[in-house]
């Protein structure tokens, strides 16, 4: 493979791009998108990928001086890509993401604009502050919301719950990974691990309780419910519960196992291994969202994105 092309794959953290695709695909499927809306789905998925790629490339531009000390093998400090080239590349990627969203709807366009604003704020100003954890969580929640924007991007609890869970998961993950280049504190690793695990459990529990309550309401009241709410109520069956529990159970086991291993041996390579597992876990979290409205077979479309993410891991680290 061309050395320069490989450097660009490393710059955008190629394996992670599939987790970004999982976010928008999950949002699209969660609100009822089907194969008949293929163009919109593809545009939103690729928009999410370009936004993520542009964000991490811009992150490396802003961190170039730090990376010369902590990560000298990264594309910019190793001089395989110049800082100016990386800046131009990052801006171009964000612009393409913005254009793809514009091709779908005004709702997708303004969601993308907000995500770009969060990305820019995080990379340039807020990364080194306590607020940075939360802003990174908002970037990922925005990716998920971008997929949901296909249906108009409303703010019902059905939309807010997965967005809040994604935000808390990624905020906890960012907190966990903060000191990955050095020796992480035990407290940071414990709190970060349990934050991610609690976010997964809370979604499964709250989603089931809320859907159960809505199903009961539909049975006792005469009203015209939206197709989405009817689907939510009908998805309250045993298959949905089993699918969510299965995916969530696997994710929680992975998170606690890798987090505990990192806490027992807090060397950078062990913490980075746990961070990698948690990033891949975002795909499973996305699948948890989908299974609650579309069932396990549809959610498996999201889960499958783990395969190319793992297959491309040789093109650079995920952290």
Tell me about this structure.
The chain is mostly helical. 78% of the residues lie in helices and 0% in strands. It contains 14 helices and no strands. Helix 9 packs across helix 10. The model has no long low-confidence stretch (mean pLDDT 87).
Number of strands: 0
Q: What profile does the largest beta sheet have?
A: none
Strand content: under 5%
Q: Report the average pLDDT across residues.
A: 87
Secondary structure blueprint with pairings:
Elements: H1 3-11, H2 14-30, H3 38-62, H4 64-70, H5 83-102, H6 106-126, H7 131-148, H8 157-177, H9 186-220, H10 227-234, H11 238-264, H12 268-294, H13 296-303, H14 306-311
Helix pairs in contact: 2-3, 2-7, 2-12, 2-13, 3-5, 3-6, 5-6, 6-7, 7-8, 8-9, 8-12, 9-10, 9-11, 9-12, 11-12, 12-13
